[in-house]
Amino acid sequence: MNDWFHKQGGRDRFIDWLALDSKINATLGEAWSRTKDYWNAGSSYFARFQLVGWRRLLNEFASESLTMLFGGFVVLYGLALPAFQEFDESKFLTGRYAVKFLDINGNEIGKRGILHNDSVPLSEIPDVLIKATLATEDRRFFEHYGVDVLGTMRALVTNVQANEVVQGGSTLTQQLAKNLFLSSERSLQRKVKELFLSFLLESRYSKREILKLYFDRAYMGGGTFGAEAASQYYFGKSVRDINMAEAAVLAGLFKAPTKYSPLVDLAASRARTNQVLDNLVEAGYYTAGQVHAARMNPAKIVEARASASPDWFLDWAYEEVQRIADGKNQFVLTARTTVDLTLQRQAEEALAAALRKEGRDNHFSSGAIVVTETDGRVKAIVGGPDYGESQFNRATHA
Q: pTM for the full model?
């Protein structure tokens, strides 16, 4: 060929294609050879650790267990995620609003919220009340991290032996998580949320702070929340001044404030108080001789007063007050309401009667009632069958 392109050296003038092809082939061949060498070396190395027989079965079991454990943790976290999203410290830690509620005639019918000045510091709460509470509700409070596995197993064994629920497995932190964020419905999802929230509380606050929140936020019967309000309600004095017998009464209310209230059932309250005193001895906080005087001189309850507090209505009204007062820099308030106490009591009785009469046959154990005027004034709210057992308001939140 005599064309100009080939006379000038052709393609080889720019790229030596034969040399490039040879280099690529050599590189690929060498890489493939090294890959095979590494693969064979690795296979020979790991062959030394090959498991057979029972060791292989054990390894497979351990691997599958870890996989299922991780998967279960992801599922549990997914169930608890809604509760985490509701975790708002401003709603329970600061206690911004303190509200006194009046009926339509101007008579006081209840209070909600805790004033900082009214909240008794933990250092001023009597040691006997703290010990009575720990001995009855959570003896290993300062040893666990929100969930007491040993205590739960012990309670399970005790309940099985007694063939009834005689001992609870929830720690004080779990009870606080339920009081602050959850309802008292018996479901697996609620228990999972309670578990995760307990860990969250333990990670955010010290044991003393958790104990302080518990004493401030627990429902104690008669529309009262917290040890100070309960002491004023039942004994007519500050919690700072209570004796051992009175401390035992208060410590016995945490489990079931309506059932063990001395203003509702004095006999049940006395039996519960003696049980708390027994717990003080069993836990090693006091001797039998030291609690003997408290047994012989039971707490004196102040004269029974009208205890028909419209608690369901007040809980809803308190939320409304906070919504209305937001941003107005007024934190100590008095609110006049439209509640009709007679109608409120009748609504509670109507729900209880319906549950007794039709609940079993129609497979329901709870309900709610709201009574309003045609102009929107709310006259009565019943959020469930027993406010002392569960403060979850089914009328407004379900």
A: 0.66
